[in-house]
Amino acid sequence: MRSLKDFFESHREHFSEGGRFEKLHPFFDAVETLFFIPGIVTKTEPHVRDSLDLKRFMSLVIVALIPPLFFGIYNTGYQSNLASGLPVTFMAVSLKGLRIVLPIIIVSYAVGLAWETLFASIRKHSISEGFLVTGLLFPLTLPPTIPLWQVALGISFGVIFGKEIFGGTGRNFLNPALTGRAFLFFSYPMKMSGDAVWTVVSGVNNQAVDTFSGATPLVVSAVQGSADVIESLLVNAGFTLPKLFYGLYPGSIGGTSALMCLLGALLLIFTGIASYRIIFGGILGVLFAAFPGYIIGLIYGGSSIPMFALNPFYHLVMGGSAFGITYMATDPVSGPGMNISRWIYGFFIGALTVMIRIFNPAFPEGIMLAILFMNLFSPLLDHFAIQFRLKKRVPNV
């Protein structure tokens, strides 16, 4: 580490004011502070002492993302080899997953960091560590078959129009990663939805490909019928409740495993990074919106509305519900700050997710639109929560 520190010390003058690469100082500073604690301290009072600065905050989120990331790499390789008729040993699957996922992550970080550097150079401020999270969250929401140029386009839109255009980290009212994904979803729907986009088929065995179906559990569930019929279809397709919980099925890179998301949620809650109120509110919202249709389906049988009679717990473990509620809804910038607002915010994200899945088959996932929609109402929820508390205060006499 000493040699690395000497390297930064010897090259700092070139990136400082008056140096040859002065305009790239934000990029140099971001790389240096990634390895070492910033050496800048406050000169005058007040001296605020806090163990959780922005860099530590974002670093803990990255650590919480490791379980879905590693599982996503394994699952991507597993689904690819399984569909291609190739060996599904741990090493073969892991290497295949790395070959598919790693380029997507590299492009996301490289292009997004380039935009961050550009805006930081123009505005003459440091690059925010917030992009460390955005640059990893965005790829985990994508299908593994997405072209790399679309990854670059999506992260560009997310960084520019989801964050930088409003002033950068701390001023964006939309989640940048979800903004980029929504842009790709509506601009290139053929690459972001359907059965064929969730599994990379390569080195094909013709017999395996002929019998391969890339249908996700959300697609299987979007049929007409009673609760028993839908659950039977899921089981017959191999989507049992335990399998959905573990996440070994086709889907977005990091959004299939509810178990991995649960591990990340526990870490975020215990470290104080994420609000448990938003997470539990989201779970309650899903169950509250899904139970009435399920009970009606049990009593009266079939329904003309797809997914109306589905078991509520399936909604929690299917698709990206767990991933969205854990990592996207809890974004401290685009989410509310008041405790009561967080309960309401999380509850409506969960409820809207189910309602979108039930009444709009064109958007079977639901969680993406639900979070972006509630991002818009987050300031309003805080406003009403503050006004409510002010009215309860005893006036000064």
Task: Looking at this protein, list some descriptive labels.
single chain, 397 residues, mainly alpha, 2 domains, 18 helices
Describe the structure.
The protein is mainly α and 397 residues long. It has 2 domains: 54-198; 215-387, no CATH class. Helices cover 65% and strands 0% of the residues. The radius of gyration is 23 Å and the shape is globular. The protein starts with a helix and ends in a 5-residue tail after the last helix. The model is unreliable at 205-212 (pLDDT under 50).
Task: Provide the fold topology.
Blueprint: H1 2-15, H2 25-35, H3 54-84, H4 90-123, H5 130-140, H6 148-162, H7 176-187, H8 189-192, H9 206-210, H10 217-221, H11 227-236, H12 241-246, H13 258-270, H14 276-300, H15 312-317, H16 321-328, H17 339-359, H18 367-392
Helix pairs in contact: 3-4, 3-5, 3-13, 4-5, 4-6, 5-7, 6-7, 7-18, 13-16, 14-17, 17-18
The H-and-E topology, N to C, reads as: HHHHHHHHHHHHHHHHHH
- What is the makeup of the main sheet? none
The radius of gyration computed from the alpha-carbon positions, rounded to a whole number of angstroms, is 23 Å
Strand element count: 0
Helix content: 55-70%
Quick description:
With 397 residues, the protein is mainly α. It is 65% helix and 0% strand. The chain folds into two domains: 145 residues; 173 residues, no CATH class.
